[in-house]
Specification:
The complex is a heterodimer of chains A (about 140) and B (about 375). By secondary structure, chain A is mainly α. Chain A folds into 3 domains: about 60 residues; about 40 residues; about 35 residues. In chain A, about 70% of the residues lie in helices and about 0% in strands. The radius of gyration of chain A is 33 Å and the shape is flat. Chain B is globular, with a radius of gyration of 21 Å. Chain B has 2 domains: about 60 residues, no CATH class; about 300 residues, no CATH class. Chain B starts with 13 loop residues before the first helix and ends with a helix. With about 375 residues, chain B is mainly alpha-helical.
């Protein structure tokens, strides 16, 4: 090609760039729609197997939202720990008899049980303790 | 005194020495700074080998040649890239086997972020053409298209397109793509901070969206293969191999093949491809003013890719019912996994409870697919 002569026109360049982006967008939209269909099909297959037609993610979400679930999980954890401790002791001492193990579950302190401003104040104090300490020391040295 | 043979030292020019130093620099960056070591280390060695005089390593196997006349690097370049371009396609097979589409399938918004980041390709394409128009450089349409694909932030795609459209630019565009991919952690954060507010970066997203079924994971590569193959035939070599590799992984019935594709196979191809790229950088090709322009356009491409992703990320954040962190848009730049890591760190810096890594992997892999599609369209329209 001779120097200074362009081998393209603006229309051609715009067409190439526009077509590239548009094709990618169309394919991606198509893929998103098809994947939605696949997701529904997957749930239906799952439903046929389990007898529950509700999507697994929704079931998980529902169960995680309920307080019963949390309580059950807590009880399960206690049971598992108790069983593990029992098995361990039984291995060490075969004459050991069950009924003497107690595993206590402590609920975390909920913020709502105390007033929110007190909780906020405590949190702030804890978080900025190191900063306050530096400030206190600086003041102390200044006095000296 | 006449020597019995000609030592390379006698043929050494300033250009060779500069390029040998560049090769050493790449090796240093790979070993000491851990910058894309799998790519930069073999590229660095390839550059050094290509710039040692009288080795004959770059002699390509053309016509009737005596045995041993063609050089190893010449053979690799000729068969692997220039004549058949099989190496970048095979790399895609390994990449597909290494890719988990789960995060993308779990949150399909990633597809749009991946496309948005291809804005970098458009920006670099017009940038290269404008430089020609203003008389700064004389980039032809094919060259402009090759340079633009650097904005796809995907090494094998850049190599494949450049090999077919402008083979003389191959070394520079490939090195530009890999170098900027290594520098994503430097390029992206200032753009992210400029285009998003602290409040936006703080937006918390739940760690996992939904569980993706095996059925979806298997069907996705099949669907991708058929749809892209039918709509953009020239993207099929890349996307087809990518989908095939992913199917090996997700089918769970060819575990040995999947493991090989993810490890030994891609490693061998990477060594051959990167050595060939390094060998495409002899002094007489690199030491031109055009090289600097290509590097500058590559930077423009990466920056605009980030901008495009972030703007669409902000749009999705506004219209989405669920909390959506717009920083994820930057992960649409398909530098896997560096762009995801940058997004994760930016999210974490703004809000210590924010773990965006898995969310970012979705747009990241969508970016790989999108850049291959755009590259395919460019090939269709430029080659005709």
């Amino acid at each position: 090609m001779p120097a200074g002569v362009l081998d393209w026109t603006w229309a051609q360049a715009l067409e190439i760039a526009f077509s590239g982006m548009l094709t990618a967008i169309i394919i991606m939209i198509f893929m998103v729609v098809m994947l939605r269909v696949l997701q529904v099909l997957a749930y239906r297959n799952q439903g046929k197997k389990t007898g529950n037609m509700e999507p697994k993610s929704i079931l998980l979400q529902k169960s995680s939202n309920s307080s019963n679930k949390e309580e059950n999980t807590g009880k399960q954890v206690v049971a598992v720990i108790t069983a593990a401790v029992y098995n361990y002791i039984k291995e060490q001492d075969p004459s050991y008899k069950a009924g003497r193990i107690t595993v206590t579950r402590h609920e975390p302190v909920v913020a709502a049980s105390t007033s929110s401003w007190r909780m906020a104040g405590k949190k702030e104090l804890l978080e900025s303790r190191s900063k306050l300490e530096k400030y206190r020391r600086k003041k102390y040295y200044e006095k000296v | 005194m006449e020597l019995p043979y000609q030592p390379g030292l006698f043929g050494l020019t300033w250009g060779h020495m500069v390029l040998i130093l560049v090769g050493l620099g790449f090796i240093y960056l790979a070993i000491k700074k851990n910058w894309e070591p799998y790519e930069l280390l073999p590229i660095g060695v390839g550059i050094i080998l290509a710039n040692l005089p009288f080795t004959g390593l770059l002699v390509e196997p053309v016509g009737d040649m005596a045995p041993g006349e063609a050089g190893l690097l010449g053979i690799l370049r000729y068969f692997g890239i220039f004549q058949y371009a099989i190496l970048p396609q095979l790399v895609f097979l390994g990449l597909g086997a290494m890719t988990d589409f789960g995060p993308l399938l779990a949150d399909r918004k990633g597809f749009f972020l991946g496309v948005a980041a291809q804005f970098g390709i458009v920006a670099a394409f017009f940038g290269a053409l404008l430089l020609g128009l203003w008389g700064v450089a004389d980039f032809e349409l094919k060259e402009a298209a090759s340079i633009a694909i650097i904005g796809g932030a995907d090494g094998p795609t850049t190599i494949y397109i450049t090999a077919l459209l402008a083979p003389h630019l191959l070394g520079i565009t490939a090195v530009s793509a890999y170098s900027y991919m290594a520098m994503v952690a430097i390029i992206q954060p200032p753009i992210i901070k400029t285009l998003t507010t602290q409040k936006e970066r703080e937006i918390y997203m739940k760690p996992q969206r939904r569980e993706v079924s095996q059925f979806e994971k298997i069907m996705f590569p099949v669907l991708l293969l058929v749809v892209v193959g039918l709509l953009v035939p020239r993207a099929a070599p890349l996307v087809g191999m990518f989908a095939f590799g992913n199917l090996l992984r997700e089918s769970k019935v060819v575990d040995r093949l999947s493991r090989t594709a993810q490890s030994a196979f891609i490693d061998i191809i990477t060594i051959l491809l990167m050595l060939s790229i390094g060998a495409s950088l002899p002094a007489e090709v690199v030491l031109q003013s055009r090289t600097l322009l290509v590097l500058a356009l590559g930077l423009v491409a990466f920056s605009f890719a980030t901008v495009g992703g972030l703007l669409v990320g902000k749009l999705i954040s506004r219209i989405s019912r669920e909390p959506f962190n717009p920083v994820l848009g930057a992960a649409g730049v398909s530098a896997v996994p560096m762009a995801s890591r940058v997004v994760h760190h930016e999210g974490l810096n703004a809000n210590p409870n924010n773990y965006l890594l898995m969310h970012a992997m979705g747009p990241n892999v969508a970016g790989v697919i999108s850049s291959a599609i755009v590259a395919g369209v460019f090939l269709e329209m430029v080659l005709g």
